[in-house]
Design a protein that fits this description.
Blueprint (H helix, E strand, L loop, with lengths): L4 E6 L7 H15 L5 E6 L16 E5 L16 H6 L4 E4 L2 H5 L4 H13 L3 E6 L9 H13 L11 E5 L15 H18 L2 H6 L2 E3 L8 H6 L5 E4 L6 H13 L1
Helix pairs in contact: 1-9, 4-5, 5-6
Length: about 250
């Protein structure tokens, strides 16, 4: 049986009100429920997670944008993995580029990844280079980022791991100016090679790879087919239900 394509809606710090969040969630869930070959994962701000507790289906899942690396810790303002799991969160983004920009290190990301996996959720580990230099040093940056962010994650935890490649330099651009599918494919091959060296070929090939970085309805199909990835991590486009629905529909047709 074909594995479902995963399309993640990362709302970031949106929308501004509970009322808007309820409407956006309901509309997105309705659209996502129409397609059987796609799993739509909705990741609202943590403040809104309780609104949508245990509302996941086989086609639409609830996700978190971040989580802490310990349960029951003295960590004011943080949300623990067990709290997320208790409200029905099945996916948790870790190491997003915006979190890393705030100073989150690979060591912290590794702790979060392992904590999420141990709690029985899927960890969406984000990696990506800041710049793409002509000498190819970004390959080394990505390799080290991936290895360090998976420090301590043993093979037994890999069934819950998803890697999201999000080149920082490509985020926020239009589909026309975003990373080309052939280049995404090249990076997908490289990332799988690193994972193979870390674990083994079978384990590496079982880890889904998503792409994030100016993914829109216009480039969804080429990224998934020519880029050879298993899904998308979508930012601003996920806040427009019509546009996001077109992306899910395109993914379902791949």
């Amino acid at each position: 049986m074909r594995k479902k394509t995963r399309i993640i809606a990362n709302w970031k710090m949106n929308p501004a009100s509970l009322a808007e969040a309820k409407v956006l969630f309901a509309q997105t869930k309705k659209e996502g429920s129409k397609f059987d070959k796609v799993e739509t994962i909705i990741c609202p701000p943590s403040l809104y997670l309780g609104l949508f507790a245990h509302t996941g289906t086989t086609r639409v899942s609830l996700g978190a944008q971040d989580g802490f690396y310990a349960n029951g810790a003295r960590a004011t303002g943080q949300v623990s993995p067990e709290m997320l799991a208790d409200v029905g969160v099945s996916y948790c983004i870790v190491g997003h580029s915006e979190r890393r920009a705030f100073g989150e290190t690979d060591d912290v990301v590794a702790k979060k990844t392992l904590a999420v996996l141990k709690e029985g959720m899927n960890a969406v580990l984000c990696i990506g280079e800041q710049v793409r230099d002509v000498d190819g040093h970004y390959f080394g940056v990505l390799k080290n980022q991936l290895k360090d962010s998976l420090m301590g994650v043993q093979k037994k935890w890999l069934p819950g791991l998803i890697v999201a490649y999000e080149p920082v330099w490509a985020i926020g651009k239009s589909a026309r100016d975003a990373m080309k599918p052939r280049d995404i494919h090249e990076m997908a091959i490289f990332i799988q090679k690193v994972l193979t060296d870390m674990y083994d070929p079978t384990s590496a090939s079982s880890i889904p790879l998503l792409y994030g970085g100016s993914a829109e309805e216009g480039n969804t199909s080429p990224i998934l087919t020519e880029g050879c990835v298993s899904g998308l991590l979508v930012g601003h486009a996920s806040l427009d239900v019509k546009k996001f629905s077109k992306m899910i529909k395109a993914a379902n047709a791949v």
